[in-house]
From TrEMBL:
InterPro entries reported for this sequence: AztD-like (IPR047697), Quino_amine_DH_bsu (IPR011044), WD40/YVTN_repeat-like_dom_sf (IPR015943)
Keywords: Signal
Protein name from the UniProt record: Zinc metallochaperone AztD
Keyword Thylakoid: no
Biased composition (Basic and acidic residues): 53-80
Stretch forming the signal peptide: 1-29
SUPFAM superfamilies: YVTN repeat-like/Quinoprotein amine dehydrogenase
UniProt-annotated stretches for the region Disordered: 30-93
Length: 450
C-alpha cells in the first residue's frame, strides 16, 4: 500500500509525550485471553489510545437493506497473539465486498474480511469489537486489539482480526448506541431493544442482554443512561413523533411527542441527550424533556455530533421538506445548557458523513469543496480550515461512497473514494500528515480504541 507521509502519527504522539509503556512487566506478563494463543513479543512501535468524541452512526435514511449475510468464521481458533507496547487502535473501512481492518497509526491493512451486501459498521463499545449489520442482525467483528488491567497499568495485545459467527439477532438492525458502560441495539423491524454491558462481549461468546421494546416498530434509537433508565423513541413505520424515558424498573418517567420525524441522537456534557427533529432539537436533561424550537417551520436536523465534555451539539440543517436530496450549506449549533441554537452559513454543502467533533469539542464539517472546517461551537466562528480532498458532489443514492469524516483524539481520518485514499489530519497542527492508497473503494469508516 502506497503512503504519502509528511510525518507519522507515532512521531506526533512521541512529540506530545503521549506514548504509553509496558512498565517493567514484559518478563511476567499476564497470559493472553482464553482462546487467543501464541507467542508474546514486544514490537518496536508504541501506541496510545485516544478517546472518540462520539460517532453514533446517525444518517438521514430510514431503510437499511442487508440482503446478504457476511461470510462467517469460527471464533474458537488459535490466532497468534502479540503483546504491544500500548493500546493499538484500529480502523474499520467497509467497501463493496467486505471490510478492511487497518492499524490506525500506520494505516497498514491488518485484514481484508469478505462480506456481501451493503454493510453498516459501528464500534461495539468495548474497544475491541465492531458490530456489522447484515440480514440476520448485528454481527461481531473482532478487530483483534485489546488491553487487560495488571496492577496499576494495562497490558495490551493484538491478534488477527476475525469476522465471527456471533450475531445479536434483529429484524432490520438499525442504530447502535454506546454510552457509559452499555451498548444498546435497536431493531427497526420489530422495535426490539437489546442492551448489554459493553465489556461483556467476547470473541467467543455473546453477553447476556436485557430485552426492551418500543410500543411499535419504527426506525428508532435507544440510549441507556448511567442511572439505569432508558430513553427510546416513539413512532410507527409511517410517522415518528418523539421519545419517552423508562426508569430501571420499566416505569415511564418522562415523555415528549414534540419531535416530528425524530432521528439521530448524541450525548452532550452533563449526560444531556439530544434528538434531531424536523423543527428543531429535543433535549432530555435533568429528568425532563426540553424542546429547542427552530426558527423555520421546517428545519430538519437528523444527524447530530456531540462531545461528552461539551454542552454544544453540532447538527445538520435542512429546510426543504420536498427535496429528494437537499445539499445544505448551513449547520446548527445547539447550546444544551441554555436551550438555544444558532444557524451557521458555510461556503459549501456537506453530507451526513461530514460532521464530527475534535479536540476540546471543536465542531468539524467536511465540505464538498474538499475543505475540513473547524468551528468554535459556542460562536460558530470558523477557526481553521484545511484542504483534504478534491471537490466532490454528494451522490443521490445514500448508500454510495462519498468522502467520510471520522475522528479519534487529535486526529481526523478522511476517506476519498474517487482516489481510493485515506488521509490523516493532525487537528492540533491543522495539517494532513499521512495519506494511504487503499486496495478498495472505501465507504463507511469507524474505529476501536484497543
Amino acid at each position: 500500500m502506497n503512503h504519502t507521509r509528511r510525518t507519522s502519527i507515532l512521531s506526533v504522539l512521541a512529540g506530545t509525550g503521549l506514548f504509553l509503556a509496558v512498565a517493567g512487566c514484559t518478563a511476567d506478563a499476564d497470559p493472553p485471553l482464553e482462546g487467543d494463543q501464541g507467542a508474546v513479543s514486544l514490537p518496536p512501535d508504541d501506541h496510545d489510545a485516544e478517546s472518540d468524541p462520539g460517532d453514533h452512526h446517525d444518517d438521514d435514511h430510514d431503510d437499511h437493506d442487508h440482503d446478504h449475510a457476511p461470510e462467517a468464521h469460527d471464533t474458537d481458533d488459535a490466532r497468534p497473539t502479540t503483546e504491544s507496547a500500548g493500546p493499538a487502535p484500529r480502523l474499520g473501512v467497509t467497501y463493496d465486498g467486505g471490510v478492511l481492518v487497518l492499524d490506525a497509526y500506520t494505516l497498514e491493512v491488518e485484514a481484508d474480511l469478505p462480506a456481501a451486501g451493503f454493510l453498516r459498521l459501528n464500534p461495539a463499545g468495548d474497544g475491541r469489537h465492531f458490530l456489522l449489520t447484515d440480514s440476520q442482525g448485528f454481527r461481531a467483528l473482532d478487530a483483534g486489539t485489546w488491553s487487560e488491567p495488571h496492577g496499576n497499568h494495562d497490558h495490551s495485545y493484538t491478534t488477527d482480526p476475525l469476522l465471527t459467527d456471533l450475531v445479536f439477532p434483529a429484524d432490520h438492525p438499525g442504530h447502535v448506541v454506546t454510552h457509559g458502560d452499555t451498548t444498546v441495539l435497536f431493531a427497526d423491524g420489530t422495535g426490539e431493544i437489546q442492551t448489554f454491558a459493553s465489556d461483556d462481549l467476547a470473541p467467543t461468546a455473546l453477553p447476556e442482554t436485557e430485552q426492551l421494546s418500543a410500543a411499535q416498530a419504527h426506525h428508532g434509537v435507544a440510549v441507556r443512561l448511567e442511572d439505569g433508565s432508558t430513553l427510546l423513541t416513539l413512532g410507527t413505520e409511517e410517522e415518528r413523533s418523539g421519545a419517552l424515558v423508562q426508569d430501571a424498573d420499566g416505569e415511564e418517567i418522562a415523555r415528549s411527542e414534540e419531535c416530528p420525524g425524530v432521528h439521530g441522537e448524541t450525548v452532550a456534557a452533563g449526560e444531556v441527550i439530544a434528538l434531531g427533529c424536523e423543527d428543531g432539537v429535543l433535549l432530555y436533561r435533568d429528568g425532563e424533556f426540553v424542546k429547542v424550537q427552530a426558527e423555520a417551520d421546517f428545519a430538519r436536523s437528523g444527524n447530530l455530533a456531540g462531545h461528552e465534555e461539551s454542552p454544544y451539539v453540532l447538527g445538520d440543517y435542512k429546510t426543504d421538506p420536498d427535496a429528494e436530496l437537499e445539499r445544505p450549506t448551513q449547520v446548527v449549533l445547539i447550546d444544551t445548557a441554555e436551550g438555544t441554537s444558532q444557524v451557521v452559513d458555510l461556503p459549501a454543502s456537506y453530507s451526513f458523513r461530514s460532521l464530527a467533533r475534535g479536540p476540546e469539542g471543536a465542531a468539524l464539517v467536511l465540505g464538498t469543496d474538499g475543505i475540513l472546517r473547524s468551528l468554535n461551537p459556542a460562536t460558530g466562528e470558523v477557526t481553521a480550515q484545511i484542504e483534504v480532498v478534491a471537490a466532490w458532489e454528494e451522490p443521490v443514492d445514500w448508500q454510495q461512497p462519498r468522502p467520510t469524516l471520522h475522528t479519534r483524539g487529535q486526529f481526523a481520518y478522511v476517506t476519498d473514494p474517487a482516489s481510493q485514499e485515506l488521509h490523516v489530519v493532525d487537528l492540533a497542527e491543522q495539517a494532513v500528515i499521512d495519506t494511504a492508497t487503499l486496495p478498495v473503494v472505501p465507504n463507511e469508516l469507524s474505529s476501536v480504541t484497543g
